[in-house]
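User: Can you help me understand a structure? I only have the sequence.
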Amino acid sequence: MSDKNAQASTNNSAVLITSVDRADDLQDVITALSEALGGARCLHTVGGAHGATVDQAVLDPESALDTIVSAVEADRAANEGAVVLTGSGNLDFDFRIATVAGAGVIVVAGGEGCHTEAAKARVRLALSSAAQRHSEVLAVVLTGEEAAEAGKTLELDVPVVAVDDAEGLRKVVSREVTTVMTPQRFQWWLLQRAKADKRHIVLPEGDDDRILEAADYLLREDICELTILGDPDAMKARAAELGFDIDAAHLWNPQTSEYVEQFAEQFAEMRKAKGVTLEQARETMQDISYFATMMIHNGLVDGMVSGAAHTTAHTIRPSLQIIKTKPSASTVSSLFLMVMDNSLWGFADCAVLPKPAPEQLGEIAVVSAETAASFGIDARVAMLSYSTGASGTGEDVDRVKAGLAKAKELAPDLAVDGPLQFDAAIDPSVAAKKMPDSTVAGKATVFVFPDLDAGNIGYKIAQRCGGALAIGPILQGLNKPVNDLSRGATVPDIINTVAITAIQAGGN
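Assistant: Let's start by predicting it. Here is the structure, written out as tokens:
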């Protein structure tokens, strides 16, 4: 995931087969491809023992894709050699499967029918659909007695091979395939990375059903170690009522914990200059966010995820008082990872600072680049504005220009530029006209918005209208990882945020 599109070339260890006309002799193609790949095993993506169920694929395709990519990656981890994946019969869904699984595609068509214009059109439409899903078609394989002859009539941008052409099949399946970072694949990667460096995360809101459900998944998949705050008996009873298993979690009641007095004494000492007494500190430690943050401070856990039922301020305030910011940071900001088919970007600040001062904008640019890099993004930072370069004037433009200067002062080697309009930041043709000498314009991967209005609106437009997976907000600038949830957070949001927090903890 080193570039804007989060792509990398990989050995072609998986091939997915799908058909434009439900060819009856699909098994012949599977056998031929298996032989061409040196005896590849077959894995059913839908309807098989290790794939998604048909009902899951129909009713919840996003969940089905998660199931499929996990199954494919588990198979790769357990076995050597190539695998042939059988498609679902739905072309669009099959192309999505291929993309998330990093598989090349073989499109099968009956040779007898490919003499007709209608049949040729079906093949071309299939290839167009594959391109839209960023799926790489290795070849069109024709079946039947007329396959070789029919292949001569198809004028395509991909190889056309008869099923009995063993050498032709070996040639097409030997090609390298570009793996594209789709939302489903990124989520799988995120969880696997968190799992590889298992960390201990505290969830203070144990009275929220979403937290219990997320905990059930995280523990079942062994993603991290968890402490959940609340009434242990009540949490166990509610989890059992909902069918969740949280037995592997540490369940703490902050009100009765043996650490309350220790935490209160420490907090009183930290805040004595502010006039905080020991009695006031004891009262403060009854607050779940303060208690959880003191757990981080004392090394009992590695990070915290909160905010499902509390405000951002309620999550951040204890962190600023106890954990504090890094020496290189003067403020806390946030970044969203925006995952789309074929793109992985960072958006900042979309959740914390209403109107950052120029110095804060510069700092946001630098820390956002660092955060993005920790998740595999080659950070090229665009300082966004309604103006590009010297084309506009005004207080807000000047603030962005000053922020750019601060970013360059803090990180002279950082690829950062501005002011940039969004189109100039992402579109090479626009960039060539407006900022031809920029190393960032046209290929930005991290976007710093001028204020919270723009940032929050921007990420939600990308999420709701552009189909982006928005992961975050990831809080930046703190000495230890603390992350805030939206009060409308879904269970997948919580799972992703816990994984991110664990990864951040591993980088500290």
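Now, to help you interpret it: The first strand starts at residue 7 and ends at 10. The domain at 7-178 is CATH 3.40.50.300 (Rossmann fold). Let me know which part you'd like to focus on.
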